[in-house]
Write a structure and sequence with these properties.
single chain, alpha+beta, Thrombin, subunit H, Pdz3 Domain, seven-stranded antiparallel sheet, 10 helices, globular, stress response, PDZ, peptidase activity, signal, Peptidase_S1_PA
Length: 497
Amino acid sequence: MASEFIRRRMTPLAAAAASLAFGAFVVAGPVPSARAHDGHGPESVADLAENLADAVVNISTAQTVQGRRSVPMPQVPDGSPFQEFFEEFFNRQQQDNDQPRRVQSLGSGFVIDGEEGIIITNNHVIEGADEVTANFNDGTKLVAEVLGTDEKTDLAVLKVTPESPLKAVSLGDSDAIRVGDWVMAIGNPFGLGGTVTVGIVSARNRDINSGPYDNFIQTDASINRGNSGGPLFDMNGNVVGINTAIISPSGGSIGIGFAIPAKTAMRVIDQLREFGETRRGWLGVRIQEVTDEIAESLGMDEAMGALVAGVTDDGPAAKAEIEAGDVILRFDGKEVEAMRELPRMVAETAIGKDVEVVVLRKGEEVTISVTLERLEENEPVNASATVEEEESEPAETSTVLGMTLAVLDDDLRAQFSIDADVTGVVITEVEAGSSAEEKRVQAGDVIKEVAQEPVETPADVEAQIKKLDEEGRRSALLLLANPTGDVRFVPVRIEEQ
């Protein structure tokens, strides 16, 4: 996958020499815009770059790491002429490796508040650092305090104490930029100091599987190791993105770089400055993508929204009676075009706000009012509650859609190590080449629902499949639980019954 080549840590080790510093220590003032252009690209961005570079800084970090254990000494016969040599060599090497070492790295950042000395960079630039220093264009070095970090968006807020106000830049409207608009990146690639590159916005709202709130701006402006945390400017001198990742087999720029949109960063930055942590809204649902097959099985005209695969006990959704199998179509008045949009919508909504959520439930749209709560970043997983053992039912098996089904009794529960609180119809075998196998349905999975109707016996499953077939449905939507109880929706193609 392309994501295997994503390089998030673009801060190279500075093992020998310090990199060139950049960013001036001057009085803050308005940044003039670039000269007007005719849509074919600016003739020159020299004036723009000259005025913006003073607000961009080099971030250098240092941390102490423990020495690594050396390779164990080879076994040699007692009395061998090499025994004394190896013992002396490996003992000396072990002593050297046990000593703590200082490791340095380099990245980029930019000033957004010259009076307060507030600097923005990436979390991965300063993560684990003992010392963080902001290096300015005039050679000034200021020790930076970390006000707060957010791993989910890879943002960090630093504070320095300047003797006079710093040159600062403003966060712009990242929603206003369009694919094809010119942008400019300034940063510290490979420790070279202030470097300016220009390109266009190649794409928007990119998901690179780096976190739950991915909606990156993609650009072909050259971004390399060391550019992390640096700004991506529009042609008016406003920061529309924070450079954070690249896709590259070699580690260098191949014209595919990613920046966190300013709109995404704004709320995170404000919270880190005020609280030192993020405070996000929480809905309390597990969701999955609505594929074309799932949409067809639910009678939807098009694939959209977020399918609720599970609801957290005592969470906001559970209290509002949102159910597994609901498809969230609208949240707080906004259309949920795709599953991955919902987490970002929820996170950006104020805690405690009453939000209208429109869901599709068994073919009907239902409006539900939900009061959002705060997302606990390290919320523990609730232990599964045990249930009383029920009397074993008579054995019953059948085969449908390439799956051999059976009543979930104690023997099968033990055979497949199925948790005590998992209920439904157990799948004991999956036919090779069947649609179920293509969807990675496995023996030991338990069918809890078919077409959003609970099932308890193989006969229940057969009856629901037959009903769907008679209605002309091409696939059956199964709610499956794995042996540990994690659930997911799987559309299985209906063969001729």
